[in-house]
């Protein structure tokens, strides 16, 4: 079935469900699309540049965000609380498996 934009909203779209657009990934992580793009540009999350935007593997992003966050120039002390900068909420959600869509 097609929605009002003509996009197929049901059945097999021929698209890998693991591959997400910036907007889709932002919604899953509870972040803005701008924050997701900044994280991709900074190399904080794996992304494939497609024209002017990116595509993301949900599993690859979750795996990266599950890793401990270490600030450059700080000791790798596990007792130290990581900085709560951009991506902190996404990392926390990925570690706990929480999403806004599921």
Automatic annotation (TrEMBL):
Q: Which InterPro entries match?
A: DNA-bd_dom_put_sf, HTH_17, SinI_DNA-bd
- Ranges for region Disordered: 65-102
Q: Report which superkingdom the organism of origin falls in.
A: Bacteria
Location of the Helix-turn-helix domain: 19-67
Question: What is the annotated signal peptide range for this record?
Answer: none
Classification via NCBIfam families: excise
What protein am I looking at? Helix-turn-helix domain-containing protein
